[in-house]
Design a protein that fits this description.
single chain; about 150 residues; mainly alpha
Amino acid sequence: MDLYGILLFVHLTSIVAWVGGGIMLEVIIEKAVASNDASRVKGLADDAETLGQRFFGPSSGIALLAGVWLVFEGGWGWGQPFVWAGLIGFALSTILGFGILVPTGKKVQEGLAAPGAALDSVRGELDRLRNISRLDTLVLIVVIFFMTVKPGT
């Protein structure tokens, strides 16, 4: 196995963790919201914050670093459409994550922190959080499409 193969393995494994973990979290959150149990949703919001810092952030960063290294190691060049799709997708996901998901998640956590809080008190923020999370997943799936199909090569 050469360095390119190792980098590709690291790149793909981190993407599987990042995207697959995000999709699984979305499914779990949908189930919690459907239960209408505010404490359950609050617990998941707390867990999502921890996962963002300790799982999604590192796995996306590893995907980026391994991907950049793959461009150099594989001689792909920065002009390839799939390379740009990856960089733009990473940037969009980062903007959505830090710009919308994190602050909206904190609002949901704060709104549900009071004893006896109901989901209706944070329904708007919760719906926004879920919709932006779906958009983020869509962005990442489009990037995966570009990475696997490699148009223009």
